[in-house]
Structure formats: structure tokens, C-alpha cells
Amino acid sequence: xxGQRTDIVHTPKAILDKIKSKCKETEKGCWEWSHRVGLNGxxxxxxxxxxxxxxxxxxxxxxxxxxxxxxxxxxCDNPKxxxxxxxxxxxxxxxxxxxxxxxGNKICKASQHSTRPANLHGKDLLEWLLTNYVVINEQxxxxxxxxxxxxxxxxVKYLNxxxxxxxxxxxxxxxxxxSLENNNLVIRHCCPTPNRGxxxxxxxKIGTKSDNxxxxxxxxxxxxxxxxxxxxxxxxxxxxxTKLPDKKEYTKITRGLRELGLVKETTKDNYVINILRGKxxxxxxxxxxxxxxxx
Length: 295
Hints:
Elements lengths: L1 H8 L2 H10 L1 E3 L5 E3 L10 E4 L2 E4 H10 L7 E4 L12 E4 L1 H12 L18 H11 L1 E3 L5 E3 L10 E4 L2 E4 H10 L2 H4 L4 E5 L14 E5 H11 L5 H18 L7 H10 L9 H8 L5 H7 L7
Helix pairs in contact: 2-3, 10-11
């Protein structure tokens, strides 16, 4: 009988009825939460022993299960509303850009005097950090506004241990604390213009130290990857047509690329030559040629 009682209490309709009973209905149709709130001021509720935002429970009960990495956005602009018809799913980037569209960049400034509440974990902590400790820029980067190290990365303390802010935020957004403690893995910045201060989960990817090293090379390249591929394609065509046995006419090819306008005036000949011979961008060079140059 107890099991049957629990099943009845936790049906989607019963959950929605319980949530609605703890809300006041406004003229706009919002179910405005009037019960217990968390340390971040958001409506809190426990269902099946799971304590989280009440409007997340309402959305799941009404529409069904959804990816826990997604955020709940309020179409009604009322952060305490639990009416599922006023809610929609979105990424953190959607949430931030929607916030700017409605209120402007000035409202999106980090709360410089905010005192971080104790005992915040998981999505609640993630939401609080992204609301109070970052500023969004035109490229959608969420720039960390608190403690920053000499290396340009933010610093934040969590469970008596200090982490790089972007690393902790990635772990919170992806619910992956095992990778957080793995020193062989790095959290890579994949922003439109890489920014070490960015904490936008949409701009962060996990990878190895080798992946990170490649990112640094690519981000600091003199020419675009598309241009470098075009150099190699022309070089390959030239070699196939001339059938040169030594394959070492790098200077001649470089001069020809420059005459075609495919090399910037500020790009040095040695930069181009090292790419043609496979000393630089070897991974691209190997895609074009089945021989390894000696240097």
C-alpha cells in the first residue's frame, strides 16, 4: 500500500497540483512561487528525494524528462513562475543572450558586492556563479569578474579546494567531477576569439593537453588554415606536374604563392617554407603527401 501511495503522489498531475498549490496565480497567468526558496532566491522543491528548482520539476511533469544540461527559461520574465506553459528549454548561451535582449548589457554586470551563499551545489551553484560573477561580451563570452591568476584564468574555491573558474563551471554544467580531478585532462576555450577569462559552458570543451597545445598553435597562426591548405594543394599540384625527384624547390614555390597574392606581406618566407616542407603543420602536410621530408 505504501508503494501505491508513493506512486499516486508522484504522478505528473499530482506533482503539478502540488506545485500550483504553493503558488499564487497572477493576472498574467503566472504561477508565482510563494513557498520556500533557496539561498539564491529561486523556488526550491523536493520530489522523490530530489531537491532542485520547482519550475524544473514543473517542466518535467508537464512535458516529460529532458537533458539535465539544459536550462529552463522563463517566457514570462518572472523568475519565480512555475507555470509550465510559461517555460521553455534553452542553453546557457540562449539564457544569457535573452537576458541581454530584454534588459541590456548594463543589467548584466556582475554583482561586485554579492556574497556567495554557503552550501550551494550543482545547477544551483552554476546558476548563481553565472548570474553574479561574470559579465557577458558581444561574442557571448561570460568573463570572470572575481579572483584571477597571473595566467589570466579565473580562480574559485569549491569544497575547500581552489579551481580554475572555467574548469569548475564546465564540471558543474556537465555534472562531471571525475574529469575535474583528472590532471591529464584540460578544459579548452573554443570562443570566437579565445579568452582565458571566459566561463561560458557553451565555449568550453574537454580535451587532452595535446589538444590544448594544438589550439594554441592554431589560435596564434599567421595565416588561416584555409590559406595554408591552399598552399599545400598548389604545392602538391606543382609536384605532380613537374615530377621533381628532390621536392625541394620551396623558395621558388613560396615566391610564386606571394606573386599570386596568397601570402600576406607581413608573412615571412621561412614561415611558408616550413609549412611546405612539413616542419610546421605536419598533421596537415601528411594529409597531402605520402612522404616525410628530412630537415
